[in-house]
Design a protein that fits this description.
The protein is built from 1 helix and 28 strands. By secondary structure, it is an all-beta fold. The protein has 3 domains: 2-94, no CATH class; 139-263, Jelly Rolls (Sandwich), CATH 2.60.120.290; 264-390, Jelly Rolls (Sandwich). Strands 8, 9, 10, 11, 13, 15, 17 and 19 form an 8-stranded mixed sheet that branches. The termini are far apart. The relative contact order is 0.10. The structure holds 2-acetamido-2-deoxy-beta-D-glucopyranose (6 copies). One 2-acetamido-2-deoxy-beta-D-glucopyranose binds next to loops. InterPro entries: CUB_metazoa, Sperma_CUB_dom_sf.
Length: 390
């Protein structure tokens, strides 16, 4: 919560030229000075003028660079103005909520000064222009305490060369249960026979047994959920080998409470909420990649009401092992305790039936080697209505 303290002086003379931009009648105007009490800098003061037009307060900063209109008798979700002691003091406070920045990244609404202290970039306004939409981009060595932060390669949007070790630390926010990791861009060197022996991306939480696979290659467009347990620092690291000459990444990090509508159900590494779409394994890379070894993840798919499950149809199904029953290489798609492996999914499609949950889940595991450099999975998912099963 960022309180902005507005001290309202006794009404002075009311120069009628103060608000030349107002269209309707200005009843009164006051000179106000605002100081940010965000715990950072109380000397950040701005003077602005306030007037009332009907039921709306009209503010104009004294130096004329901003103007805003705030409903006087309404408390909007974004900006609340409460009038204390008969209008002599106004406290405008706003929540540090997500905002859309001018740069199209998601930021958090802070005062200018707070944003500077967080090492963020102000990009646009929020909270009825009391706040600035603050986009925090973490670079190597940063500790991230804000929601909606971006971790990107040093030369982004250009590529970076190795060798390089770039890590950031994310401090869990109070009550956060999941870290959403979205690869807006992610391209580092791929595996050799499934093994990420050159470049790697890792996620670890201190004091936690939560595992995120060690991955590499091109995972642009994919998004994952990492369970946060406790308050231990979460580190995200990218290591580039000396042969790496075109690494590019921009990773959005969001911390979710379990009750957030976008949070994944517990145990889901991925959560597809659109009714139809595509599921791909790590480094599928548009059919030019290679399956990565040594992980198990659970992919979950929301099932809308009226539907009885999710139909997976084969785009690509290429796993080490021979179809249909020999999954001894350790690579398989697991659905209802049945393993599918080799190079065909069932007969090209599979119905994943809904049980009690509003979603279905499948597990994908990979073994310790991928000698034939099998590509992995690209499956279309779509809902199937109740009544067609059988
Ligand atoms: C505020 O003003 C608008 C437009 O003049 C009017 O429609 C609305 O009823 C007013 N609301 C209150 C609470 O006075
Ligand atoms: C007050 O704000 C809420 C939420 O922004 C809005 O739905 C409502 O119509 C507003 N009421 C008035 C009187 O303007
Ligand atoms: C990575 O994948 C994205 C999306 O499929 C693609 O646009 C991009 O060109 C790929 N990058 C490289 C280096 O192959
Ligand atoms: C982080 O921001 C997202 C929206 O981008 C929001 O849903 C979530 O609740 C926020 N997390 C916390 C811990 O406030
Ligand atoms: C889902 O149910 C249908 C019809 O009962 C059945 O044919 C199919 O095998 C089931 N799918 C799975 C993955 O068990
Ligand atoms: C592109 C690249 O640098 N690949 C290297 C990855 O690591 C293996 C084993 O160290 C090398 O043989 C590759 O040349």
């Amino acid at each position: 919560m960022t309180p902005v303290h507005a001290r309202v002086s006794r009404p002075r003379a009311l120069p009628s030229v103060i608000l030349p931009f107002t269209l309707s009648i200005v009843i009164s105007s006051l000179l106000i000075s605002v100081s940010s009490l965000g715990g950072f800098d109380q000397s950040e003061k701005h003077e602005f003028r306030v007037g009332f037009e009907g039921n709306t307060s009209v503010y104009r900063w004294a130096n004329g660079y901003r103007e805003l209109m705030v409903p006087t008798f309404n408390s909007s979700r974004e900006a609340r103005r409460s009038v204390v002691s008969g209008g002599l003091f106004s406290i405008v406070s706003f929540d540090n909520v997500p905002c859309n920045s001018d740069s199209k990244d998601v930021g958090t609404c802070y005062s200018n000064r707070e944003c500077t202290n967080l090492g963020g970039t102000s990009s646009g306004i929020c909270a009825g222009s009391f706040g600035t939409c603050c986009v925090v981009t973490a670079t190597s060595g940063s500790t991230v305490t804000t929601n909606n932060t971006y971790f990107q390669n040093p030369d982004y949007p250009s590529t970076t060369s190795g060798p390089l070790s770039s890590s950031i630390t994310v401090t869990p926010m109070t009550g956060a249960t999941q870290l959403y990791i979205e690869f807006i861009a992610f391209s580092i060197l791929g595996p050799s026979s499934g093994s990420c022996m050159n470049d790697t991306f890792t996620v670890r939480q201190s004091g936690s047994t939560s595992v995120f696979p060690i991955i590499c290659g091109n995972n642009t467009g994919q998004a994952f959920y990492f369970p946060i347990s406790g308050t231990g620092a979460i580190s995200l690291s990218i290591i580039l080998s000396s042969g790496s000459d075109q690494a590019l990444w921009k990773i959005r990090l969001v911390q979710f409470h379990s009750t957030d509508s976008c949070a994944a159900p517990t145990g889901c590494t991925q959560y597809y909420q659109d009714s139809t779409g595509m599921f791909e394994t790590f480094n599928y890379n548009g059919g030019m990649g290679e399956l990565i070894n040594n992980y198990c993840i659970t992919a979950c798919f929301a099932v809308g009401s009226g539907n009885c499950g999710v139909l997976l149809t084969e785009g690509t199904f290429m796993l080490p092992g021979t179809a249909p029953n020999d999954c001894s290489m350790g690579d398989y798609l697991l659905v209802d305790s049945q393993k599918y492996c080799g190079d065909t999914l069932n007969n090209g499609m599979l119905m994943v039936n809904k049980t009690m949950s509003p979603y279905v889940s499948v597990t994908i595991c990979t073994g310790t080697s991928n000698p034939d450099m099998d590509l992995g999975l690209s499956l279309n998912y779509s809902p199937f209505p109740c009544g067609i099963a059988g």
